[in-house]
Amino acid sequence: xxxxxxxxxCLVLIVTIMLVAGFPSAIVRAAYQPVSSVVLTVGSxxxxxxxxxxxxxxxxxxxxxxxxxxxxxxxxxxxNVVELTGGxxxxxxxxxxxxxSLESHVVDLTVGNANARVDGRTVWIDTDHRxxxxxxxxxxxxxxxxxxQSLGGLANWNAESRTITLTLPKQMExxxxxxxxxxxxxxxxxxxxTLSATATQLVFAVGAQDQLVVASFGSAVKGKAxxxxxxxxxxxxxxxxxxxANIETLLAARPDIVLTEEGPALEQMKxxxxxxxxxxxxxxxQLTDAIKRMGALTGHVAEATSSLNLLTTKMKEIADAVxxxxxxxxxxxxxxxxxxxxxxxxxxxxxxMVRNGGGVSVSEQLTGGKIDVSPEQVLxxxxxxxxxxxxxxxxxxxxxxxxxxxxxxxxxxxxxxxxPKYVVSWDxxxxxxxxxxxxxxxxxxPDQVRFDMSVEIAHFYQQFYGFTVPAADLAAxxx
Length: 479
Hints:
Elements: H1 2-19, H2 25-31, E1 35-41, E2 46-49, E3 52-55, E4 66-68, E5 73-77, H3 79-83, E6 88-92, E7 97-102, E8 105-110, E9 115-118, E10 121-124, E11 134-136, E12 139-143, H4 144-150, E13 154-158, E14 163-169, E15 172-176, E16 182-186, E17 192-194, H5 197-205, E18 212-214, H6 224-229, H7 247-253, E19 257-261, H8 265-272, E20 276-279, H9 286-298, H10 301-322, E21 332-336, E22 342-344, H11 349-356, E23 360-361, E24 370-372, H12 375-381, E25 385-388, H13 396-400, H14 409-412, E26 416-418, H15 433-444, H16 453-465, H17 471-477
Parallel strand pairs: 17-18, 17-19, 19-20, 21-23, 21-25, 25-26
Antiparallel strand pairs: 1-2, 1-14, 2-3, 4-5, 5-12, 6-7, 7-8, 8-9, 9-10, 11-12, 13-14, 15-16, 22-24
Helix pairs in contact: 9-10, 10-15
């Protein structure tokens, strides 16, 4: 009976995905309910949750599901199973009682007691009235079918493979994203989709990249470095970006959350009930806030804290180093965008990077994000230093020989530099930007600001990507 019901549910979900475009959005929203599929194997210390492997107990690999021989019932250590669905488990040692909470369900069980309280009702745990919770290796072991059904789910036992498949609802909660939108997301996120390269890099910053089921890397990121860091990159489907999302691809991937930026795709996803969460990192403080939020959303709080500690420490080191430069001696900096006559207004990340690096952005008084400027305007600004981004189509040689720029101080003094890139260009609003700020401060004030860039680069990529940068790449980036 349970197998037939489970298959029916799967069939309904498949049909819903195939026909989603033809259904009214209200019906689609009702159909899209993230659920947890948990597979446990008797004797195995790991379980699979929505396609990803997790330890049943991080501290003790001997904690495994068992079959109690006398009752012939499967028992599982319940804590991590329930918590990975976003539910909660409370243990009261004095009473030897465990409380399971998931969505609207509350289940109270007592070790050795064949009765339980389910949503306020007293019930038998099993038709065999000997079946009761027990303790093995200091873990409360619960009869698995009863636990699943009491929490609004299903349990299926496969005798041949000795596996238990649980289908449980996910505990949902309302959160506010960085753009002020209210979003309903699972309390515990397992399957992650991204619709922007920035959001993808934030996933890496908290060590949750192995949970990506859809990811936007962007053409600029899909290079040699990222391929070496993350071999899975070309195996993960893309689903467009914040301006236009492929809804069918997203629905088929069954994400717990879709991480994106502000754009038209938010309305697309809202219409079908996908849990879309918008990030922004353009303004001061937003990058660290974004990493902190990402850690909380994905359950990688410790990893996020470690990454934030590194960023905070290094940004303070940069601030201390450039503080010795007198305000009157601070250099005027022009940052080029995709071309030499394209730059960034004061409301874009590059302006704050210049300020943090001890310089003064010549375009900081402008608004409008990415803007076109005339050669005459660059002459009026007369920057001391010109920074070309890694995606600027004009080369250093092009700028130095451009007849329209010969009277610009940066050109006259040959102070035109290209911002490095490894995974992404170091001027982008992602964690790598601290390396760009450090590099910029040294380029502006080489006699006063000194960093061992090879050490800093190696440390950063090990911390944020778990990757050892090859010696040849280190040498090129440290120039």
